[in-house]
Write a sequence for this structure.
């Protein structure tokens, strides 16, 4: 197998990952493993190993994929592969039920991204950490990392991610019965969602605001939100009572 044939294989991997073709993934893993002994450049080896791991994830073979990502972290000290390795390691561990180890890997990912001024990478890692604490109902820790997500989302102008984080912060304040703070968070989340035309987030934030207004017996505001929900297919027409 020559270089050109290996490149064709790698192109096929991209296609398979997009199409989620599991049968083709099985064959590709075997072909890539057969190609590895022919590759002498370590960077190219790491590149192929990363693809094998991604295909294993597609096949839900997280334990096997985890071995590849741990090897990737050990063998390649470049930021690109270290970040990918730690992030994917964390996700594999979470899916395998090793929550504490997964969280530790997320912390490593977040620290690595911050150290390398990778705002997008930091936002992504902080989001995973915030979700972990949010689902545990450890809202103090969740708030801390949701604010980190917002901090980095603003730097990369990712309004959808900022909106999602504000929505979760609003949910935490609602749980803590801080209703007016929750309303402000939901309103800001909705504004950002309108800007980026994220219909799902618009709906989520609007419904939560409606719920809070009803708890506060502010029925006029709640009814106004319900009326405006009919414009979800035209986000620019949604008003904010």
């Amino acid at each position: 197998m020559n270089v050109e044939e290996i490149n064709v294989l790698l192109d096929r991997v991209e296609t398979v990952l997009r199409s989620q073709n599991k049968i083709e993934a099985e064959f590709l893993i075997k072909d890539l493993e057969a190609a590895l002994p022919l590759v002498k450049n370590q960077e190219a080896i790491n590149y192929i190993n990363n693809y094998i791991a991604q295909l294993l994830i597609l096949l839900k073979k997280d334990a096997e994929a985890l071995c590849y990502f741990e090897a990737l972290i050990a063998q390649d000290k470049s930021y690109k592969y270290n970040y990918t390795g730690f992030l994917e390691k964390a996700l594999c561990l979470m899916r395998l039920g090793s929550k504490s180890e997964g969280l530790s890997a997320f912390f490593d990912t977040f620290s690595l991204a911050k150290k390398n001024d990778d705002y997008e990478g930091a936002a992504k890692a902080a989001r995973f950490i915030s979700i972990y604490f949010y689902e545990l109902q450890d809202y103090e820790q969740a708030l801390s990392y949701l604010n980190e997500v917002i901090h980095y989302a603003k730097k990369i102008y990712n309004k959808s991610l900022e909106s999602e984080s504000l929505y979760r912060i609003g949910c935490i304040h609602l749980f803590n019965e801080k209703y007016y703070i929750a309303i402000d968070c939901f309103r800001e989340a909705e504004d950002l969602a309108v800007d980026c035309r994220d219909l799902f987030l618009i709906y989520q934030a609007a419904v939560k605001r409606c719920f809070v207004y009803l708890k506060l017996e502010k029925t006029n505001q709640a009814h106004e939100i319900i009326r405006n929900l009919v414009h979800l297919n035209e986000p620019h027409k949604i008003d904010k009572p």
About this structure: The CA atoms of residues 170 and 184 lie 8 Å apart. Residues 3-19 form the longest helix (17 residues).
